[in-house]
Amino acid sequence: MKTLNSTPRADGFRMPAEWEPHAQTWMVWPERPDNWRNGGKPAQAAFTAVAEAIARFEPVTLCVSAAQYENACARLAHTSIRVVEISNDDAWVRDTGPTFVTDARGEVRGVDWAFNAWGGLLGGLYFPWLRDDQVAGKILGLEGCARYRTEGFVLEGGSIHVDGEGTLITTEECLLNPNRNPHLGREAIEALLGDHLAVDKVIWLPEGLYNDETDGHVDNFCCFVRPGEVLLAWTDDPQDPNHPRCQAALRVLEQARDARGRPLKVHKMPIPGPLYATEEECAGVDALSGSQAREATSRLAGSYVNFLIVNGGIVAPSFDDPHDEDARALLQRLFPDREVVLVPGREILLGGGNIHCITQQQPAAQRG
Ligand code: KQY
What is the pTM of this model? Predict the structure, then answer.
């Protein structure tokens, strides 16, 4: 793998929007018992269902530790999914994988952000995280893609969304959190995002979803559905702790202009639940010091916004919730040319994220 000393923008690369064509999607196999209950077996079944749903639309590569390699191969033997061995600390490839960037001459490269397990020793979710920090470089090596490494600048892919036309949305709760880049202010972070993703406008939502253990990743709260249009997780219930968060985000979005000077149209996606883990589900997770505790009294950060756009499809979580069909209908209305597929998301949610967090799209090479 070749590591470059320049930046993507200087070299003519940009981060495409998720709806632009993909070469494939990457995933990582879940196994750590202090995050996934019952030795990760229910999560492995849930990830398999997500991978199979995506594989209906585009190739999928699953990264698996040496310890789980044989098991994963056996469970995926009936599918077209490619399995490769990559050491890891957990299965959140949105955050540990590369952010792919493309140029107009048909080359694909990757940004390898520094990773500190969502906060390092200041509220991060586990220690150590070295294997996770190495995942992006290994994926780029496998694909023969050149790499930009942001040593000293921590970022997770789930904390940003772009429209592919120069606009990025994120949250202050995450990117300005002292547990990520305490040495950098808002302007310096905007400059780094501009240099690495070729964005010219950053829209800062104050917070993400309540109780999101990533410190408010935007991919669980708000995303672009096309240039000039966003989808925002929403509740009208003033008693819901998400209510002030949704209101604050809406105020920002209604005032915002994107990089091309357009106002944003805001679509509202109902929040499922409120959802909580059961005592039994929590009891299945190893309780280790330094790992995220699982308690049945904690509200789960469930969100239908945590979906992946794939070639010709949308793969979104369902929660066995009365809002599931509303979510499907809204996604189908927003993406009329794609087939919306709902896959059970509860097991992934119990681990702290959902379908967008466990996937990383690799864009197709683009020419012209
Ligand atoms: O949602 C994500 N992007 C990552 C969630 C990490 C949860 C770890 N328990």
Answer: 0.98
